[in-house]
Amino acid sequence: MKKKDILLAALLVIMWGINFTVIKLGLKGVPSMLLIALRYLFTAFPAVFFVKKPKTELKYIVLFGLFVGVGQFACLFYAMEIGMPASIASIVLQIQAFISPVMAVFYLNEKIKTKQIIGFVIAAAGLLIIGAANARDGINAIPVLAIILNLLAPVFWSASNIVARIASDKEEAKGEKLDMFSLVVWSSLIPIIPLMVLAFVLDTPQDIINALANFSGISIFAVLYLAIGATLFGYGVWSMLIGKYPMGKVAPIPLLVPVIALMSARIVLNEQLSSMQWIGVIIILIGLVTSNLDFGIFRKYFESKSVKNEG
Fold this sequence. Notes:
The protein is an all-alpha fold.
């Protein structure tokens, strides 16, 4: 990856890592579906008046908006609302790093390299260690529905990755370049109405009115952070990366998100990191490096040394 893109990926990891703590804070005063609807409302407006509609078919805008907004976030936010801790939610969501490349094999004809499989296995071991540490430390009274929804969230996320990549590839075939930031902005119009319908299904009208009438400073901060930081910047950068690089190279990047999520949860929510959690974090880092390491560089280096010695 180019240095500029590596820097953007690092900022993305930080924004998304803190995102889980912000979600938990936002859910203390706002029901989950309303919180997501407000997130997308402020993501779309006023941005749609200044950002041109993306040059892609309407179906890709709709599918991207539904998979991310209604699929991924409805599952994630509601899981966290009914009992999924921020730290564990951030970990479970990262299984998209394994689902996305597999989907890419079927829908994008990409191949999974051996180093990626090795890296994924190492990172998965790290995630399992962190999860085991959480269970050992007593964070095991999680509702089954919360677990199921949290597991569904990365499936929808992976599906949105494929949609974004297909849309990008189709425009590239025409000699055009898909503006991923524009896709994020315009697709944000799609989830608002379905999410409001879900809000009135899961909560009473009085609950919605009370939440809006008693909007706190923390709630305002949460909505703005989720809209501007996590969505406009976060998904803008993420969609740009999956449009430029193979899915197998980009998908492991969010495996670093739990590192930041665990740290922010400890500082803000007082969720403590144990020695086992830190071991898991280090293993995740090793897995990420392994899956993205260019072994060809080392091969060329040793070949050049060999040629020099022969000379």
